[in-house]
Write a structure and sequence with these properties.
By secondary structure, the chain is mainly alpha-helical. It is built from six helices and two strands, in the order αααααββα. A two-stranded antiparallel sheet has the order 1-2. Helix 1 packs across helix 2, helix 1 packs across helix 3 and helix 2 crosses helix 3. The relative contact order is 0.07.
Length: about 160
């Protein structure tokens, strides 16, 4: 929870906002945040700075680095949520079509690795088809790494 700031702290926080907002805006754009969402990401960054009660007395370089790190984390969260929403929106035939595309891309990657002599990281790319009784692909299973992540989340 954000504690109340006195008038002097508010003025210093507003000054910090005005000083760094343009830099953070450019950085958010560089992290592929859509222009319409940049203001929200910037606001979240400054709210996080205030919420965790970071000192306004830090050196300028310290503030800049900390704000940049918070912004980077907010951008990663944004892209993670966006990816999750895209996956949740896929249904039925559309899901099957996307799954087939993924399998094709995986095969192309394996072929590329074979041609260049590079090892394939199977722990990150392993996908197997789940078939119904008639042999049609109905789904794709989780990779080993996904299973490990979910097992870890469930154990908490």
């Amino acid at each position: 929870m954000i504690k109340r700031m006195d008038e002097e702290a508010k003025a210093r926080f507003e000054e910090m906002y005005l000083t760094y907002q343009d830099t953070l805006r450019r950085l958010a754009y560089a992290y592929d945040i859509p222009v319409d969402d940049i203001d929200d990401i910037i606001q979240d960054t400054f709210v996080s700075y205030a919420r965790y009660d970071y000192s306004l007395d830090q050196p300028e370089m310290g503030k800049k680095l900390l704000l940049g790190k918070i912004l980077k984390n907010r951008c990663m969260d944004y892209h993670r949520q966006k990816k999750r929403r895209i996956c949740e929106n896929l249904e039925g035939e559309e899901f099957a079509a996307e799954s087939v595309k993924l399998k094709k891309i995986e095969a192309e990657m394996k072929d590329f690795c074979k041609q260049t002599g590079r090892p394939v990281d199977s722990a990150r790319t392993q996908v197997y088809a789940v078939k119904d009784d008639s042999g049609r692909i109905v789904n794709f299973g989780r990779s080993v790494s996904q299973k490990a992540v979910w097992a870890n989340k469930k154990s908490r």
